[in-house]
Design goal:
The chain is an alpha/beta fold. The chain folds into 2 domains: 4-267, Alpha-Beta Barrel (TIM Barrel), CATH 3.20.20.105; 269-369, no CATH class. The chain is 42% helix and 18% strand. The chain has helices spanning 47-52, 62-67, 71-76, 80-84, 96-102, 128-138, 156-176, 194-206, 224-234, 252-260, 270-276, 308-312, 315-323, 327-353, 357-367; strands spanning 4-10, 17-23, 26-30, 32-35, 58-61, 90-93, 113-116, 123-126, 142-144, 183-188, 211-214, 244-246, 265-268, 279-282, 285-288. The termini are far apart.
Length: 369
Amino acid sequence: MKIKYTLLHEEKNTKARIGTIETNYGTVETPMFMPVGTRATVKMLTPEELYDLNSGVILANTYHLWLRPGEDLIEHAGGLHQFMNYHGPILTDSGGFQVFSLANPKDITEEGVYFKSHIDGSKLFLTPEKSIEIQNKLDSDIAMSFDECPPASASYEYMKNSIERTLRWAERGKKVHRNPNQSLFGIVQGGAYQDLRKFSAIETVKLDFDGYSIGGVANDGESKEDMYHAIDYAIPYLPKDKPRYLMGVGEPKDIIEGVIRGIDMFDCVLPTRIARHGNAFTSYGKLNIKNAKYKEDFTPIEEDCDCYTCKNYTKAYIRHLVNVDEALGGRLLSIHNIRFLIRLTEELRKAIKEDRLLEYQSEFYKNYH
């Protein structure tokens, strides 16, 4: 079956809402944070560890899996769930973000995008149809439409032409989508331009997707204000009976701001990326475990955290691991960071249910630096 979204409660003071998404691999609650498993693995974590973190949907990357090991091999293995032994819901992105980071503007055509492989420099060509074909074979629960990812600095004229092409690509991709058990999401673009965000949202909804994403909000050079405006400009035109996904966002404050504005789904590589550099999320802001003050600190990263790391290991030990380049240090911090963001969304759902989200926001911001 395709996913089924159910709206359960709307917070009375904001646009925030609680819902569920029913999938072939279980029902998940929203708002939620989705860990990123780019190459069919959330870096350094096993599926069993993800279950322990109360992870629901995870992401995999179409571009990377297309190149290695290839969509045909994964299809032969029984699809992504079987291949990576993750028996929860999986979302695959379209590959667009990676492609556009590798392509030159002149190589973006109406038909598709020419670019060079980041592995060996070989010439590649990706179209909306090919992106959907790959995702059909990967057999994720949710597939994403192939869209152009223009930079935040793009001019109004460029952005207008870009979203019009993205709409044509979305329609082309939808026409070739063949997997009856896979939902397909449309993507709203438009940069920081209010009228373009509105236009993109309205026209994307006309194509009748299973869910809607707000893209182009995690690009380099975009301000937080522009990100929040992009959500505000698009949300009024997205249907209430389908999930809303803010792509590539994982800073705690940005998740809270997104939820307040009506977003249901978030993803980001941030929790595992900063972990590999010795950083941890806490309720008081990011903690750099390499700092000398933690050398003899025999307390957990966060006292009230229920993750495996905080229940079993101290800052002093994790600092030692990170400073001598032991992989376990990054693993333990990754476990904590992912659980921190999942726990944040659990707390947000509770606050929404009790209609006290703004109170929760105020309390969180007072402590978080």
